[in-house]
Amino acid sequence: MKLKTKNLLTLAELFPKEFVALIDYSIILKKELKKGNKPLLKNKTLAMIFQKPSTRTRVSFETGMFQLGGHAINLSSQDMQLSRGETIEDTAKTLSRYVDCIMARVYDHNLLEKLSNSSSVPVINGLSDSFHPCQILADFMTIKEKKGKFKGLKIAWIGDGNNVCNSMIYGCALSGVNLSIATPKGFEPDKSVLKESAKSVEIDLTTDPIKAIKDADVVVTDTYTSIHNNDQKRIKKFLPKYQINDSLMNHANSNAIFMHCLPAKRDYEVTSSVIDGPQSVVWDEAENRLHTQKALLASIIRA
Ligand code: CP
Ligand code: NVA
Description:
binds norvaline, EC 2.1.3.3, amino acid binding, single chain, Rossmann fold, four-stranded parallel β-sheet, binds phosphoric acid mono(formamide)ester, ornithine carbamoyltransferase activity, Asp_carbamoyltransf_Asp/Orn-bd, alpha/beta, 9 strands, Orn/put_carbamltrans
């Protein structure tokens, strides 16, 4: 399949049919991998720019390109001329002459906009302060694998209304999964993302985690201290009320699954008993970064 969009910066660039098809394609690629994938990206190169640390994003993109017969170049922004003042626009124009796609993990989402505006090749957001679209592709693949459907499900997001939460809202709008979000006051997700998505799906915003988690099929959280928002004083606004523990999980459906994009701060946003417990699917979720990004790369890189 080929996507209509040139870039994937938020998820909002996708049509609902494309989102669902990408998830189904990821499931096919995962099955095919057992006997080896076709070299769909032979002679294609991905540049990966990292302004911030990463384990999953870096390794899954690089492995994904390798498994599809292509190549990936890891570029720490500190080692690039960017760190000496070369503009992002000039960087984009230069990289476009060498590679077939650029994935970037940045602090400021505006930098991605500038990068993609000056790039003639597709640009993928590998996490910004505002969005993490690749994570949500993996999350919805995991939901499809575990629940077999999207329609009629309810996700509860509990904790910080952060970059991953913003992309989760778009994921729900694209798939038709209902979403209930519980955050402390002042930690809500982006208002314009909420407003835009409320046209397509039911989104409930509350400060009460017990209300949000009731009847949930999927329970999701993330760190209280993101890389771009690392003030440790934030933590006391969340604890103990917004911690996913056994007692809070008891309010969800009995067959609810627990997800976390990782890395997790154990016994802060989630207890070890939950993240290591029988309802947790976090390792499948992490693995699915590989399969969904392969589907994305194969669908966004032009022949
Ligand atoms: N979930 C995620 O993006 O992990 P990394 O920060 O390790 O890439
Ligand atoms: N919200 C976290 C996600 C890390 C994958 C962050 O931005 O650091």
